[in-house]
Amino acid sequence: MDELKDKALKYHSLNNKPGKIEVVSTKPCMTADELSLAYTPGVAKPVLEIADQEENAYLYTSKGNLVAVVSNGTAILGLGDKGALASKPVMEGKGVLFKRFADVDVFDIELDTKDPAKIIEVVKMMEPTFGGINLEDIKAPECFEIEDALVELCDIPVFHDDQHGTAIISTAGLLNAAEIAGKKMEDLKIVVNGAGAAGIRCTEMFIAAGVKSENVIMCDSIGVIYKGRKERMTGLKSNFARETDARTLADAVKGADAFIGLSVPDCLTADMLLSMNHDPIVFAMSNPNPEISPELAHATRDDVIMATGRSDYPNQINNVLGFPFIFRGALDVRARKITEGMKMAAAISLANLAKEPVPQSVKNAYKGKDLVFGREYLVPTPFDHRVIEWESLAVAKAACDEGVAKKPISDWEHYRAELNRRMEKFWK
Ligand SMILES: NC(=O)C1=CN([C@@H]2O[C@H](COP(=O)(O)OP(=O)(O)OC[C@H]3O[C@@H](n4cnc5c(N)ncnc54)[C@H](OP(=O)(O)O)[C@@H]3O)[C@@H](O)[C@H]2O)C=CC1
Ligand SMILES: CC(=O)C(=O)O
Ligand SMILES: [Mg+2]
Fold first, then answer.
1. Does any ligand 1 atom lie closer than 6 A to the CB of residue 170?
2. Are 272 and 416 within one domain?
3. Ligand 2, atom 5: nearest CA belongs to which residue?
4. Among this protein's residues, is 377 annotated catalytic?
5. Considering only CA atoms, which residue is closest to atom 2 of ligand 2?
6. How far is CA 317 from CA 1, 261, 371, in A?
7. Does 156 lie in the same domain as 10?
8. Which residue has a Cα nearest atom 4 of ligand 2?
9. Is residue 287 assigned to a domain?
10. Whether residue 125 sits in one domain with residue 205
11. Domain end: 308, 334, 363, which one?
């Protein structure tokens, strides 16, 4: 058995307790009196309050801090379609991160269907239970139809993490990598490899952040998406079809400033990397194995600015820096949806935080490594306790500014203090 497999399987069954999450009661239930409050007859009282006024669910149930992490397992990380049940470790993992980094509670829901209409129907029916819906590892193109419909149907935020979480973090990373490379966003020539959930939305957000759409070439499993191509033109790919002679990834990356990998392992070769412009930005974000290994990238070029989606290399460009903090901010103002403004506010907050000096307590979580804004530190780390203050607050503010907050905040200093108080238990 390889070492990682051995360690990971042991971790997932530690303490004779299979899996990574459990349900904990937040109220005492040790006496007959408490039982008669938690359950019948006392429980009838909040039932009637909620039946009378729906918003009372936020006062008397866990709805307001509870997110559904919903998958059908059709695009589990970069492992492809492994089915609903096999997606459960990832969905439980997302639950752990929601809790650990933003004190958001999660039920993971694995749905055994590939039919978008059924997923839409089931998730809509679950709306009363939750304060928000995080769709996860549902493949393109179905993910677009599912998310669009649910955003329209639901009065709580619905967010496909692989689309928007990934876009937010990689936009923060790209803004900073461009600055470090001494290049302007509007001059960057970018190749996005992967035209699925993540590839499409990352590209859209790069364009919103200043990249010129004509400077982006997108590739999928059969190569460059060019104008006039007929095969496999599913989902939103046609929006990114370019007038170009490039047909393969190798053609596309010649002279490019950035390679954005949201595809499969080991598809960017050393020769391709050598053909890129000076100070090439390589975000090899396929999980668990990147499009090019950092070892090969650094051995190939000294000037590469390298990031992966993994936790065990510098520059983790991964949606873990997004979903916990974005939902925290959205839940706290009871946002109806997560708008483009909220997403951009999240990206900018992360890009800005990376430029702040890093406290020793954060460095300690990374074995005392010196984390200073630069090639090896493009975005903050998930263990940086300041991320919640910066990102959740930015998201909550943007929700208020954009008029989607059902419970707007006016005293931001009070909210900042509340966020810190909420997280104290995790920072000991
Ligand atoms: N670091 C992070 O935070 C995140 C990383 N990811 C990673 O991005 C990848 C894609 O995830 P997601 O978008 O959700 O999945 P989807 O299934 O929605 O999309 C996968 C895309 O990859 C394309 N593809 C497959 N093989 C190749 C290839 N050889 N060369 C180029 N493109 C290829 C597919 O092409 P076709 O359209 O032709 O089928 C499709 O467009 C995964 O590896 C995942 O781990 C995803 C989300 C977050
Ligand atoms: C990180 C993540 O969500 C993915 O790779 O699918
Ligand atoms: Mg995912």
1. no
2. no
3. 77
4. no
5. 77
6. 29, 11, 15
7. yes
8. 77
9. yes
10. no
11. 308
Cβ neighbours, 10 Å, residue 15 = 5
Same domain, 186 and 293: yes
Q: Which residue has the tokens 């995080």?
A: 134
Residues 70 and 214 in one domain: no
- pLDDT, the chain, mean: 97
Alpha helices, DSSP H, located in 154-248:
166-181, 197-208
Q: Does residue 309 line the site of ligand 2, with CB under 6 A?
A: yes
Question: Which residue type does 104 have?
Answer: V
158-180 pLDDT, tens digit per residue, is 999 999 999 999 999 999 999 99
- Cβ(257)–Cβ(185) under 8 Å? no
Instruction: Find the domain containing 388 and state its range.
Output: 319-427
List the CATH number of the domain containing 130: 3.40.50.10380
| Residue 124 forms part of a structural domain | yes
User: What share of the chain has pLDDT > 90, as a percent?
Assistant: 97
Looking at residue 272, its pLDDT comes to 98
How many domains does the chain divide into?
3
| pTM score | 0.97
- 333-389 pLDDT, tens per residue? 999 999 999 999 999 999 999 999 999 989 988 888 899 999 999 999 999 999 999
Cβ(273) – ligand 1 distance below 6 Å:
no
- 19 within domain boundaries: yes
Q: What is the CATH number of the domain that holds 325?
A: 3.40.50.720
Same structural domain, 11 and 149: yes
Same-domain pairing of 27 and 154 = yes
Strands (DSSP E) along 223-333, which ranges? 223-224, 258-261, 281-284, 305-308
- State whether the beta carbon of 126 lies less than 6 angstroms from ligand 1: no
Closest-approaching ligand to the CA atom of 167: 1
- The answer to whether residue 226 is catalytic is no
The CB of 195 under 6 Å from ligand 1? The reply is yes
The radius of gyration computed from the CA coordinates of the chain, to the nearest angstrom, equals 22
pLDDT at 1: 56
Which residue among 7, 17, 39, 60 is the active-site one?
39
Helix axes 166-181, 340-353, angle to 10 degrees: 40
Q: Which atom of ligand 2 is nearest to the CA of 287?
A: 5
Give residue 134 CA to ligand 2 midpoint distance, Å: 13
Q: Token pair for residue 33?
A: 């009196």
pLDDT at 421 over 60: yes
Same domain, yes or no: 78 and 95: yes
Whether 248 is in the pocket of ligand 1, judged by its Cβ within 6 Å, is: no
Q: Which of 202, 203, 220, 325 best tests ligand 1's pocket when mutated (most atoms within 8 Å of CB)? A: 220
